Structure formats: structure tokens, C-alpha cells
């Protein structure tokens, strides 16, 4: 497989680092030609995630991968261990979409060797960039807050029952960040009582949040999974909906601004993170 890849990195001047692992739509031709029509629809993209967060916190660092999650899921354990044992989910190199339908033509699924090659080519560089940026930010500010940006369709029976709340906050049951980080995020989301918010429900934080969120080291992590109806149309061609997005962006801006202010004030130092 020949493919020139590098993550997209914007180095900011803030203790906040935004990670966006699922907004890319690039698929190498050698893989694209093996997808069936379901795979080529790319329906499970975190559509417009960069646009949703663009400009909300000007100084924040941003790390994105341009590669689609069907090539490799940058928010999965590189060892292939399930984040949600016993529940339907997709794998490191998905074989199905979120509705449980195969995405490859018969017999065209990746081998174990190809999965490893994709891991080394796409997954590893993305996370190397996150490691480097978190360390740079921590060295400068004494603390780093990794905010993992996600979105998903509101109704996916294969993954969860009913309609997903708009804001789904994940901290792996409070383990990945200081209590204040979780509370700031909850309070900002619940400021609008008309919008449902849940914490550590179906989405407790993916591998990125769980792997990097170690408050005792000065690195905190939190995941925000936003139901796509809050900012876009949830069917092809997956158009952005500015009139909906405006309200959602205001909530997200409030979260990020407060997190930055408190981080700069030293509120998330090791002495302030005990539960």
C-alpha cells in the first residue's frame, strides 16, 4: 500500500488540545475499490466536525486525521481490544458500518497483515502527533486538556436504543479528568434545559480519552459525542445546517472557553484533581 499520510496539526497557544479522529474522508484507491456501495457511502463520518469547532477557541491546538474511519479507526485500541465488551461496536479496521452492514465486497476484507500495515501507516502517526502536542502544551502550561471531538447520527439501533441525547460526555466514569472539567462541561450543556445531556452513558470515552486521560500526570481528557441533528442534516448529502449549528456552537464555545480559563488559572493542577 503506497499512500502519503500525515495528520493535520495546528499548534496553538492554549492548554486545550482538540482531537478530531473521525472527520476525514480520504480513502486510498487500493482500499476504495474493495468497498461495496455501503462502504463507499462513508455514512459514518463525523461530518463537518472541523467546521463545527472552527474558531470556537482560537488558540487551541487541533489535531485531525484526513483518513476515513473505515480505513482505520483512530479512536480504537491499536491492539484491537473492544472498548465496550458485550455491546455492538466496530473494530480497528471496520468490516461493517454502524448499522451492522458489510462495507467490503465479498472476499476483499483486510488481512491481519494489512490491518497492522494500516495501523503503522495511519493510526500510529496520528497518536504520535497527539503525544507530542500534549507534552508541548503540558511543558508550557503545566497542564494539558485533551478534548476529543466526535459526532454521530441520532438513531442507530445497531449501537443504541432510541434517539441519542444531543450531548454525550465521556470521562470513563470520572477517571480521565479532574472533576471540575467534567462539571464545567455538564453545566454548560445543561444550561439549555431543552437539550438533553448525558454523562458516561452509551459513550464513556473512546480509546483516545481513556489512554491519555491521566489527571495525576497533568494530562486530562474528555470526549464529547454530539448528535448530528444538532448541527446538520442526517442523510446524504449530509449538509451542514447553520441555523442549528449556531446554538450548538455557542454551547461548545462556552465549554472550551471555561476550560481554558480554569486551566490557565491553575484549577486543574495535581493538587486540585483529587476526588
Automatic annotation (TrEMBL):
NCBIfam families attached to this UniProt entry: hutG_amidohyd
Name under which the protein is recorded: Formiminoglutamase
Species of the source: Pseudovibrio denitrificans
